[in-house]
Amino acid sequence: MVPTESSSLATACLESLIDRLHRRERLRVWSIVITVYGDAIVPRGGVLWLGALQALLERLRIEPGALRAAMSRLASDHWLSREKRGRRSYYALSETGERSFALATQRIYAAGPVAWDGGWTICVAPEEAGEARDARRKALRELGFGTLGPTVFCRPDTEDAPEAGEFLAGAVVFSAKAPVNAHLPPLTSAAWLLEDTGAAYNEILRVFSPLLASLRDGAQLAPLDAMAARTLLIHDFRRIALKDPLLPPELLPEDWAGREARETVAELYRLLLPQSDRWLDGCDGAPDGGLPPNSAAFSVRFGGLPS
Predict the structure, then answer these.
(1) What is the pLDDT of residue 235?
(2) What pTM value is reported for the model?
(3) Which residue among 175, 228, 234, 281 has the highest number of C-beta atoms inside a 10 angstrom radius?
(4) pLDDT surpasses 60 at 1
(5) How far apart (Å, rounded) are the C-alpha atoms in residues 304 and 216?
(6) What pLDDT, on a 0 to 100 scale, did the predictor assign at position 2?
(7) How far, in Å, CA of 57 to CA of 52, rounded?
């Protein structure tokens, strides 16, 4: 690939994104590894040679020693399983890791606004203390519930709302109905702390828009660079998307940045996909010496990806 002015700009944008990764809070290498597996490796058979993963993380300026420590931690915590083939180590997400990422996948790659008929689930939890209380609150948050009080939670009934049965055990649960045109954003902004999430979405728009603009202008990144950019994009977006309750549009502020951020991430992801997949095509990560093609389920991400 002959470098062009726009391609050089795209590479400069990537370097800026990598600089930002290292300027932020303490780098959690294990979390980046989970991003790589959930985004790119699970859809292509789930197994990757450590050397291929090391090449990608070195492009992100992450030292081999830091990666080895992260892989050891993930294996000890049963997120990854390890297999030796000759002198090479291969890793795959364990059943625990796959289950945890399955719910995350739905939220990260959601197509867009969800339909809502005004129905609500209201949960009044029993009085609890310490770890039991914190665990229930955390689980309900991750399942899309907002907080109306210390023990009162609510969630709009949408078609894709995840099952919450075990986390509602012992609680008083009832259904309610509200007109879909009721003015509810002030309530929902408080119940779901949308101000912080909205600010994070605005940051995504700020830092990734220059790379998107260069790719729109015809720039191309080298395969490894495209995979590095894709990893940074999903790693950043994943952390925000998992905190976003994905509320129906009727419940969101008019200036909600999440809509534009999701559209921007989806477009940039589609533009990075051909070259990043080219890098994955060359990875020695499966018993036959290469990664298999993306699974059929992969194609529905963000409402549909190019075949």
Answers:
(1) 95
(2) 0.89
(3) 228
(4) no
(5) 19
(6) 47
(7) 9
Torsion sign over Cα 67, 107, 234, 258: negative
Q: In angstroms, rounded to a whole number, what is the distance separating the alpha carbons of residues 251 and 174?
A: 20
DSSP symbol at 81: E
32: pLDDT strictly greater than 90: yes
Exposed, middle or buried: residue 164 (CB in 10 Å: 0-12, 13-18, 19+)? Answer: buried
Per the CB < 8 A criterion, the answer to whether 276 and 227 are in contact is yes
Q: How many CA atoms lie within 13 A of 205 on its CB side?
A: 14
Q: Answer whether residue 115 shows pLDDT above 50.
A: yes
54: nearest Cα among 46, 65, 44, 45 = 65
User: What is the rounded CA–CA span in Å between residue 62 and residue 60?
Assistant: 6
For residue 284, is pLDDT > 70? Answer: no
| Other beta carbons within 10 Å of 271 | 23
DSSP per position, 198-257: HHHHHHHHHHHHHHHHHHHTT----HHHHHHHHHHHHHHHHHHHTT-----GGGS-TT-T
Residue 44's nearest CA partner among 225, 208, 212, 227 is: 227
